[in-house]
Amino acid sequence: KKDIGASGTRHRHLHAMFEQLRPEDSIKLAVQLESASLVRVRYLIVVSTANSKGESILLGMDFPHSDSSQCTIGLVLPIWSDTQVYLDGDGGFSVTSAEETRIFKPVSMQTMWSVLQVLHGSCERAVKAAVIPGNGLEWAQYYLRHIESDRFCLNEWEAMNDLESVRRDSNGQNSADRMSDERLIKEHLRDIMRTEDLDNLTSKMVHSALQTRIGFDMRPYKEYIDNEILVTMAQMDKPSKIFDYLYLGSEWNAANFEELQKNNVGYILNVTREIDNFFPESFTYMNIRVYDVESTDLLSHWPNTYNFINTARKSGQAVLVHCKMGVSRSASTVIAYAMKQQHWPLDVVLAYVRDRRSIVKPNEGFMKQLQTYSGILNASQQRHSALWRR
């Protein structure tokens, strides 16, 4: 019943926020933020418009209390091409746009992860569309004219008292001690996130749990912990199904035995130097021991990785191809496989794979190798067709 009530409240709030928008605008994401008041409810929404591709704004919405069916606008923050997003090291993030900085603290880590993904996408689109003052976002003026929240709400949107936590404090430690502490923090952090409900877990709760478990002051590690939370959130996303027999994923996916079994995975292709094989007695492994740097030679491994993936396909089992995040090394290897297996050009495969895993981004060195490999495959196909014509 509690969930039904919460869902009804969110639906009512979403409807009220839509009522504040122009007909041609839409909400890409709405996340609830922490509030200094025990009564008031605050949301940050990302708004786009049908008329201008690549343009987005952030609106801060205020509800007097959770049962309210009406809200007011308390903040308008345009996303320009120079807009940047930073973690603040205290469970929130800051957005700096045209020399104006605002701090936001989502109510849980799950909502934090969601909003950061959308914000980074919005910032990338603003860069591509060259959205600068005087060249775009004229429609934001409509919302600036409709800021109607009271002074208490406006003060909270304008609060800047946490900015000092952006600075990293080394606490006078030497680097070896700090690295040792960070390894310990990472180990406990992952255990906490593996066992807790992420929809209700906040960054502050994680910091507190870490301090209780480990026993030393976590304040010098605020920035490290928040960054590691986001890395872990990214890794905890499910592996992406590229084909029925081929999954692309992260270190976390490679360590999730139940998920591997559920996906009928019998083969694992580990494209990292830094990550061990977690279950060597249960799966057939192939290792490509390389780092994610532009100088790494992946191309020479692709004939062997192609054969390994095909062995899995013919066996009737699935294969997981992973690196640390499932973004660059493993993604490039999957793209190379798909080009050869499907006889698709590089741009088609890139679009296909990104459609199934939006965070895919081979580094520049790997992109050049994919272009070279595409040329090799084209030449090979032309030779075969020439032989058939004889």
Automatic annotation (TrEMBL):
According to the lineage, what is the superkingdom? Answer: Eukaryota
Query: What is this organism's lineage?
Result: Eukaryota, Metazoa, Chordata, Craniata, Vertebrata
List, in alphabetical order, the Gene Ontology terms for molecular function in this entry: actin binding; protein serine/threonine phosphatase activity
What positions does the domain Tyrosine specific protein phosphatases occupy? 303-357
The cross-references to SMART domains, in alphabetical order and at most eight, read: DSPc
The broad enzyme category this protein falls into is hydrolase
The name under which this protein is listed is protein-serine/threonine phosphatase
Q: Which residue intervals define the domain DEK-C in the entry? A: 179-234
- Family statement drawn from the similarity comment of this UniProt entry: Belongs to the protein-tyrosine phosphatase family.
Where does it primarily localize? Answer: cytoplasm
This protein's UniProt keywords: Cytoplasm, Cytoskeleton, Hydrolase, Protein phosphatase
* Start and end residues of each Tyrosine-protein phosphatase domain: 238-379
Biological process terms in GO annotation: negative regulation of actin filament polymerization
